[in-house]
Design a protein that fits this description.
The complex is a heterodimer of chains A (about 325) and B (about 650). Chain A is mainly alpha-helical and about 325 residues long. In chain A, about 70% of the residues lie in helices and about 0% in strands. Chain A contains 11 helices and 1 strand, in the order ααβααααααααα. Chain A is globular and about 55 Å long. Chain B is mainly alpha-helical. In chain B, strands 1-2 form a two-stranded antiparallel ribbon. Chain B has a two-stranded antiparallel ribbon with strand order 4-5. The longest helix of chain B is centred in the middle third of the chain and has 36 residues. Classes of the chains: A mainly alpha (about 325), B mainly alpha (about 650). At the A-B interface, strand 1, helix 3, helix 4, helix 5 and helix 9 of A face helix 15, helix 16, helix 17, helix 21 and strand 3 of B.
C-alpha cells in the first residue's frame, strides 16, 4: 500500500508538472489583464513537440543528443525524493537532500554541455550564466536544508517532513522562517523564474535557460521543457513539505490521502499565486545583481543554521 | 632476514622497479629490452595491487626487513593504512603505464626514451617505499627520492630557462617541506628507542603536550607543502603542468596522496588526534585551499594548469574531511571521526583515479592537436570519441556529479559535516554545519569549471587548425584512459566495494569506532538512483523521432564561425567578475607609441594572475633571506687568523657548554 502511494506521488509530480506551469502562466496573464491561454496548453505543447522531427546542428556530437535524456532521468529521480501527500517517498531510506541537490546539478551539468555543443554564441552564453547562478545557488540551497535537518536531526526528506508534522503549527521557530526565506529565493534562481531569469524571454541580453535550449527542437526540447516543469513542481512540493506539511495523510486510508491531496492542491495554489504576483510585480535583475541576491540568500541560510543552536534548547 | 610470501613479493617489487628496469634500460637500447622493462613495470604494479589486497586482509601485517643490507634500519610493513595507499599507487600506475607506452614513443627519441622509463620506474618505486616504509629513515629516503626523480622527469622534457626556474622552486619548497617532515620524526627521538614506527607509536603516549603540538604542526606544514595546501601550493601549478602528461598524472594523482598518507599516519596513527584546536586549523586552511584552488582553476585556459589548480582544490576537500575527523576525535565522538576519515580517504582515492585520467586526457589532446590551450580546442568529441567519453567521465567525477566517483566521497564529507551538529561543543556545532555551505560553493564552482573544460575542449566547433584535424589517439592511450574511466563509474555506482574495507581501516585508526550508518546507506541507494536515472533516460530515448541535420541558428547571418563561440576565457568571465577580489591580476596595458595615446599603432595587453602570494608572502621572505646572507658574508673575510679565532671561540664555547651541563 505504502509503495503504491509513493509511486502515485512520483506520478503526481511528473504528470502534474505541466499543469503547474499552465496555471502560473494563466494567473500571470490575468494579473496583467490578458486573457491567457488554457491551463492545459503545456500538455498540448509537449504533445506537439513529441510528434515533431528533431533538428540537430551538424557540428554537434553524442553529448548534444544524450543530454536531454539524462536531464530528464535525473529530474524524474529528484521527484522520487519529495513527499507530497504522505510523509514518505519512493527513495526515502538513504535518500537525503544532498542527493536531491546534486541530482539537480547532474541534470544541469549535462544541459549546459548540450548547450555548448550547439556551437553558437547563445548556448555558450546561457551555459556561462547558468554556471554563475547555479554555483552560487548551491550553498544557500544546502544550508537552508541543513538548518531544517538539524532541527529534525534527520537527513532524509521524508524523515524531516514526518518530524515537522508532529510539531504544532504554532511552534514555528525563527529557523523555519529564515530557512523558508532562503529556500524560496533559491527556488526562484534554481527554476529560472523572475527576478533571476525570465522564462518567457528570447532576448539575448537577458536569457539564461532559454539561451541554453535554443538549439533543441522536437522530442528533445519536449523532454527539457518537461524536466524543467517537474523541477518547478518538485521545488513547490519541497517547500510545502518542509514548511507547511500539516494535513498530509498519516495512515494509508484512501480518504485520508484524498484529503491530503486536496490540501496539497490548495497549498500549491497559494504558492503559485505568490509566484505569479512576484513575477508580475518584479522586473528582472541585472545579471550582476544576481550574485547579491544569492548572497542575501546565503547569509539568511547561514543565520538559519546558527539559530538552530537556540532552537534546540 | 624474516619474510614470508608477502614480504618476498614486496622484495620482488622493489628489486624490479629499483634495479632491474633501470639496469635493463641503461644497458641496452634495443626495442625488445624496452618492451621487457615495460612489462616488468606492469607486472610489478599488478603484483603491488595483489600485495595490497592480501596485506589488507591479513591479520598480522606482512613485513620486509632489509636492515642487514642497508646502512640504516630499513623496514617495510603493509598494515591496513599502507595497504590502502599501496593499492592507490599501484592501481593508478597500471593504466598510466599502458598510456605512457605510445606516448613516450611518440614524444621522445631513443636515448631519452630509455632514461624516461628508467626514472618512471624509480618514481613508482619511491612512492611505494614511502607508503610502505615502517622506519623513519626508509620513509625519508623514499620521500627524498620521490622529489628528486620527479624533478628529473620534468627536466627530461626540456631545459629552458623558465622550466629550470620552476623546477628550482619545486625543489626548494619540497626540501623545506622535507625538513619539516624530518623534524616530525626527530622530535620523537628523545622519547623513543628508535625511529621505527612501532617505537614511535608506543612513545607517542608518553611525550609531553608541547612536543605533541610541535609534531602536529610540523607534520601539517611538511605534508601540507607536499599536498599543496594554500599558501604552500606555489610549486604545484608550476611543476605539474610542465611534466610529460603521464608524469603529471602520477604527480597529481599519486604523489600528492603520499602527503595525505603521511599526515594521516602522523595525526591519526601516531598522535591519535592533535590538540583541541588542530581540527579547526586544518578545516580553515582546507576551506581556503578548496575555495581559492577552484577559483584559480576556473580562471585558467591552459588545460594542464587548470588541472593542477583543481588538484589544489581537491586536496582542500580531502583535508576538509581530515579536519572534520580531528574535531570529532577531539570531542570524543569516534563514529563521526570514522565517517569523516572514510570520506577523506575515499576522496583521496577517487582523486587519484580521475585526476590521472584527466591529465592523461590532456596528454591525448596535446598529442592530437599540439595544444592544451582550451581557447584553441573545440569539437574534439566528434574527432576523438573514446578520449572524449573518458574525459567526460573524468569531468563528471571531479565535478562531484552523482553516479560518478567524486560524488560519493563529497557526499560522505557533507554528511560528516552535518553530523557535527550533534556534537556537544557549541563551536563545533555551528562551524561544522556552516562548512556545508563552503563545500557546496566549492562543488558548484567545480561543476562550472568542468562544464567549461569539457564543453570548450570537446564540444562545438574546432577553434584552430590543430583541433580541426585532430585524430583519435593510438590504442594504448585509449586503453589507459578507458580503464581509469571504468574505475570511476564503478566506484560511482557501486561504492560499497571500497567503503567496506575503508570502514575497517578507519576502525583500526580510530579505536572504538563503529560502522557509520551513512556508508551503508549510500552504498544501498546509489544503485537504485542509477537505475532510475538511466532507466528513465533510456525510456525517454525511445520517443526518438526522425532526425535531420540543420544549421545552427545564426541570427540570419550566412554562416557561424568558430570565433563566435564562447571561449574558455569568456565562459569564466562572470565568475571571475564576481570573485574579482580573489584574483587581483597584474594588468598592464601598453600603448605604442607612448606620446600619442589617442592614435596608437599597437596596444598590448597582459594580465598575470595569482601573484599576490608571491608579492605578500614569498617575496619579502626571499628578500629577508638574501639580506641575511649578505650580512653573514662579513664572517667570511678570507683571513686565516680570523678563521683560527672562530675555531678557538667554538672550542671555548663548547667547553663552557659542557661544563655547565654537568
Amino acid at each position: 500500500m505504502k509503495i503504491t502511494v509513493d509511486i502515485l506521488q512520483v506520478l503526481l509530480l511528473i504528470l502534474g508538472a505541466p499543469l503547474v506551469r499552465g496555471i502560473i502562466a494563466r494567473m500571470k496573464a490575468r494579473m496583467q489583464r490578458r486573457q491567457g491561454a488554457s491551463v492545459w496548453r503545456p500538455y498540448a505543447e509537449l504533445a506537439k513537440l513529441f510528434r515533431k522531427e528533431d533538428l540537430v546542428p551538424p557540428t554537434s556530437s553524442a553529448v548534444f543528443r544524450l543530454a536531454p535524456m539524462l536531464l530528464f532521468g535525473a529530474t524524474v529521480c529528484v521527484a522520487a525524493f519529495v513527499p507530497v501527500v504522505h510523509a514518505s517517498a519512493l527513495l526515502a531510506s538513504g535518500g537525503d537532500f544532498f542527493l536531491l541537490v546534486y541530482l539537480l546539478a547532474l541534470g544541469r551539468f549535462f544541459l549546459s554541455l548540450g548547450a555548448l555543443d550547439g556551437g553558437s554564441a547563445f548556448g555558450g552564453m546561457g551555459a556561462s550564466r547558468e554556471a554563475l547562478v547555479s554555483s552560487l545557488a548551491e550553498a544557500p540551497f544546502l544550508l537552508g536544508l541543513v538548518a531544517v535537518a538539524i532541527l529534525a536531526s534527520r537527513a532524509d526528506l521524508a524523515g524531516i517532513v514526518a518530524w515537522t508534522l508532529q510539531q504544532s503549527i504554532f511552534n514555528i521557530s525563527a529557523v523555519h522562517v529564515l530557512a523558508f526565506a532562503s529556500l524560496a529565493m533559491v527556488a526562484l534562481a534554481e527554476t529560472g523564474r523572475m527576478p533571476v531569469d525570465n522564462p518567457t524571454t528570447h532576448l539575448e541580453l537577458t536569457m539564461i535557460h532559454e539561451g541554453m535550449v535554443l538549439e533543441y527542437s522536437g522530442p528533445r526540447l519536449a523532454l527539457i521543457e518537461w524536466a524543467s516543469a517537474i523541477k518547478l513542481h518538485a521545488m513547490l512540493a519541497l517547500l510545502i513539505g518542509l514548511f507547511v506539511p500539516w494535513g498530509m495523510a498519516s495512515g494509508d486510508s484512501a480518504w485520508g490521502i484524498a484529503l491530503a491531496l486536496l490540501l496539497y492542491c490548495v497549498k500549491a495554489g497559494i504558492l503559485m499565486v505568490l509566484l505569479s504576483v512576484i513575477e508580475s510585480a518584479v522586473a528582472k535583475m541585472r545579471m550582476y545583481l544576481v550574485p547579491e541576491f544569492l548572497g542575501v540568500a546565503s547569509a539568511v541560510s547561514a543565520l538559519a543554521v546558527i539559530f538552530t543552536m537556540l532552537a534546540k534548547r | 632476514m624474516q619474510m614470508g610470501l608477502m614480504g618476498a613479493s614486496l622484495f620482488f617489487l622493489l628489486s624490479v622497479l629499483g634495479v632491474c628496469v633501470p639496469l635493463i634500460l641503461i644497458a641496452s637500447h634495443t626495442k625488445s629490452a624496452r618492451k621487457l622493462a615495460i612489462s616488468l613495470i606492469l607486472t610489478a604494479s599488478l603484483a603491488g595491487c595483489a600485495a595490497a589486497v592480501l596485506g589488507f586482509l591479513r591479520q598480522s601485517p606482512p613485513l620486509l626487513d632489509l636492515s642487514r643490507i642497508t646502512p640504516f634500519p630499513f623496514l617495510l610493513v603493509i598494515d591496513r593504512l599502507s595497504a590502502f595507499f599501496l593499492l592507490l599507487v599501484c592501481a593508478v600506475a597500471v593504466p598510466v603505464t599502458i598510456f605512457a607506452v605510445p606516448y613516450f614513443d611518440l614524444h621522445y627519441s631513443e636515448p631519452r626514451r630509455n632514461w624516461t622509463w628508467a626514472f618512471f620506474s624509480l618514481f613508482l618505486l619511491s612512492m611505494i617505499v614511502v607508503v610502505t616504509a615502517a622506519t623513519g629513515f626508509a620513509f625519508l629516503a623514499g620521500w627524498e627520492l620521490m622529489t628528486l626523480v620527479s624533478a628529473a622527469l620534468i627536466l627530461i622534457e626540456g631545459d629552458s630557462e623558465e622550466r629550470r626556474h620552476n623546477v628550482f622552486i619545486y625543489l626548494l619548497m619540497m626540501h623545506a617541506g622535507a625538513a619539516a617532515v624530518a623534524a616530525c620524526f626527530f622530535l620523537f627521538l628523545p622519547y623513543s628507542h628508535g625511529l621505527d614506527f612501532e617505537a614511535i607509536r608506543t612513545a607517542s603516549a608518553t611525550i609531553p603536550g608541547p612536543i605533541r603540538t610541535a609534531v602536529f604542526l610540523s607534520a601539517f606544514v611538511g605534508f601540507g607543502t607536499k599536498a599543496g595546501l594554500i599558501p604552500l601550493h606555489l610549486w604545484l601549478p608550476r611543476a605539474h603542468p610542465i611534466a610529460p602528461s603521464p608524469v603529471s598524472a602520477l604527480m597529481s594523482g599519486i604523489m600528492l596522496k603520499t602527503a595525505v598518507y603521511g599526515f594521516v599516519r602522523f595525526a591519526f596513527d601516531f598522535l591519535g588526534g592533535g590538540p583541541w584546536w588542530s581540527g579547526y586549523a586544518v578545516l580553515l586552511v582546507a576551506a581556503i585551499t578548496g575555495l581559492l584552488g577552484i577559483l584559480y582553476a576556473i580562471a585558467e585556459h591552459d588545460l594542464k594548469r587548470l588541472l593542477a589548480y583543481s588538484s589544489v582544490e581537491n586536496i582542500g576537500i580531502v583535508f576538509l574531511g581530515l579536519g572534520t575527523s580531528l574535531i570529532f576525535l577531539a570531542n570524543q565522538a569516534p563514529l563521526g571521526a570514522a565517517l569523516a576519515l572514510v570520506a577523506a580517504l575515499l576522496h583521496a582515492f577517487n582523486h587519484a583515479l580521475f585526476k590521472s585520467l584527466l591529465f592523461l586526457g590532456a596528454g591525448a589532446i596535446s598529442n592530437a592537436t599540439d595544444s592544451v590551450d582550451l581557447n584553441e580546442l573545440g569539437g574534439l568529441q566528434r574527432r576523438m570519441p573514446f578520449t572524449g567519453a573518458a574525459m567526460l567521465v573524468g569531468c563528471c567525477s571531479i565535478a562531484g556529479m552523482p553516479l560518478f566517483s567524486g560524488f560519493v566521497s563529497e557526499w560522505l564529507t557533507f554528511r560528516g559535516l552535518l553530523a557535527g551538529s550533534s556534537l556537544i561543543g557549541t563551536k563545533a556545532q555551528i562551524i561544522l554545519p556552516l562548512m556545508v555551505g563552503i563545500l557546496a560553493l566549492i562543488g558548484g564552482l567545480a561543476a562550472a569549471c568542468f562544464v567549461k573544460t569539457f564543453g570548450v575542449a570537446f564540444l562545438g566547433r574546432p577553434r584552430s587548425a590543430g583541433a580541426e584535424h585532430a585524430r583519435e589517439v593510438p590504442l594504448g592511450m585509449r586503453v589507459g584512459l578507458l580503464l581509469l574511466g571504468a574505475c570511476c563509474i564503478c566506484i560511482g555506482i557501486l561504492p560499497g566495494l571500497l567503503l567496506r574495507p575503508l570502514v575497517s581501516l578507519a576502525q583500526v585508526l580510530i579505536p572504538g569506532a563503529g560502522v557509520p550508518e551513512e556508508t551503508l546507506s549510500i552504498a544501498r541507494i546509489i544503485p537504485w538512483i542509477a537505475a532510475i536515472v538511466l532507466g528513465t533516460g533510456a525510456l525517454a530515448a525511445l520517443l526518438k523521432r526522425r532526425e535531420r541535420l540543420a544549421r545552427t541558428w545564426a541570427c540570419g547571418l550566412p554562416e557561424l564561425s568558430s570565433r563566435m563561440q564562447y571561449t574558455s576565457t569568456v565562459f569564466s568571465k562572470p565568475i571571475r567578475f564576481v570573485f574579482a577580489r580573489a584574483y587581483r591580476p597584474d594588468r598592464t596595458v601598453e600603448t605604442l607609441p607612448a606620446d600619442q595615446p589617442y592614435f596608437p599603432v599597437s596596444i598590448s595587453y597582459r594580465s598575470v594572475r595569482t601573484t599576490s602570494y608571491e608579492r605578500v608572502l614569498y617575496r619579502p621572505f626571499v628578500e629577508w633571506v638574501v639580506s641575511l646572507a649578505h650580512r653573514l658574508r662579513r664572517l667570511q673575510t678570507g683571513n686565516i687568523q680570523i678563521y683560527l679565532l672562530y675555531i678557538f671561540l667554538a672550542l671555548v664555547s663548547l667547553l663552557t657548554f659542557l661544563r655547565f651541563q654537568n
